[in-house]
Structure formats: structure tokens, C-alpha cells
Specification:
There is one protein chain. By secondary structure, the chain is an alpha+beta fold. Among the domains are: 42-127, Monooxygenase, CATH 1.20.1280; 161-239, no CATH class. Helices cover 35% and strands 14% of the residues. The protein has helices at 19-35, 45-52, 57-63, 68-73, 77-88, 100-104, 119-139, 153-160, and strands at 163-170, 175-179, 182-185, 190-193, 205-213, 237-239. Strand 1 and strand 2 (175-179) form a beta hairpin. Helix 5 (77-88) packs parallel to helix 7. The longest helix is centred in the middle third of the chain and has 21 residues, at 119-139. 14% of the residues are buried. Residues 1-31 are annotated as: Disordered. It holds the Pfam family F-box-like. Residues 37-83 form the F-box domain.
Amino acid sequence: MFTFRKGPGDKFAAGCTTPKQSTRHERNCERSSAHRSVSLDGLPSEILLKILSYLDAMTLLCAGCVNRRFYHLANDNFIWIRIYSTAFSPKRSNWKVSSVEKTAEPMNLLSVEDKEAGYWKKEYITKQIASVKAALAQVLKPVDPYTGLPAKTKEALRVSGLGWVIILREKGGKEHIMEHVDLSINDSSVTVVWYGKNWPRLATLSALDLCGVTPVFMGRSKTTTKNGMCQCCAGHARPR
């Protein structure tokens, strides 16, 4: 782009822009660039996998809820075997993990590529749930000699992050998941409260399930999904 100052008797050559036209063109370019947005979903899978490999387990589970593509990417076995081995493998002073590929070697050459997608994610979650149960079992070991109940029930319930949901199923198949609003823990009982304005009509319901929901990750903040359930609790809800 060329611009010229117009002096006395000068004329602009054909195809050249005047200062006003140049300024207008620059403004249009700025506007068009301002409207451009970079979509993370538009990146190649290799780059997204590299980004996901830096996430911790809980954040990776949340990333898998973005859409179908992110769900499959977040199931990558190479990422999850690194998370699994870091969390549960025996500690060795001479073992330093510097990459996802090197992590698979000390795992007794366990197969990564031959396993179905999400295999090591399931293994990690299963192991994590078992470790939570073991930790709670230790808290519940002392027994009150007067009641015969665990002496630290209140502490165990608070540590576990136990929550309660009601699953209402309509005759047409639609489900409504209602999380508890208030929870009061006493020495020998638990009071759970639900209330709200968006409850379905009783005449339309075909089933009601009461579920206790225990987070997979103790001591971590909740991340709520579309259906109202916490992502870190997904897969660990039990009907009561």
C-alpha cells in the first residue's frame, strides 16, 4: 500500500490510496481482527493432547465433559498411565518420570496402546475409590462403647464429602436429579433437606431413587456438571 502527499498540482496515480482511504482500511482491518476468535476445539489433536497432559486427574475429568471430541481425547491411555503411576506406584529414589512414554516403562511393560481407550482412567478411578474407602475405614475404626457405633461418624461424613441426590424419573423417561440443599450431621443421624420450585408433578413420575454420592477426590472442591451432579462424584453414586 502506497500513499502520497498531494502537493499543488499533483494528482494521485491510479490504484494508489489516499490518506483517508488508508485510515479507513486500517480501521476495517482492526475491526475484522477484533471479531476473529481462536477456538481451542479447532486445534489439532496432537496439540490438545499435549495441553491435556499437563492437567491433574480432576481437571482432566472435567475437560472430558466439554464435548465428544474432548471426551475421547481425555481418555488417552498415555496420559492416564502417567497419572496412575504417579499416584499409586511404589516410590523409588532412582525413578524420575520425565515424559509420558518413559512412565510406561517401569510399569512392568504393561500395555498402553493395546488397551481400549479410557482403560487407565477407569483403573485410576477404581484405585482412587478404594483409597478413599480405606481412609474412611481408618476413621471409623474407633467404636463408642456406649452406643456400639463408630465414635467418629460425624468426622467421617465430613471428610468423605458425602452428599445426597434424589433421582426422579417421569413416565416418558425424562430424569430430574435434585441435589440436597442442606445437610445436618448429628451423633446418630443425618438430616437431609431438599426444596425448590422446579420439581416435576407427582402424577408424572414413575420412579424415585435416593442416592448417596461420595466424591472420588476427598478434600477437593466440587465441579457441577449439566445434570447437577459433581464431576468428581460421577460413577460413585449408590442407590439407598
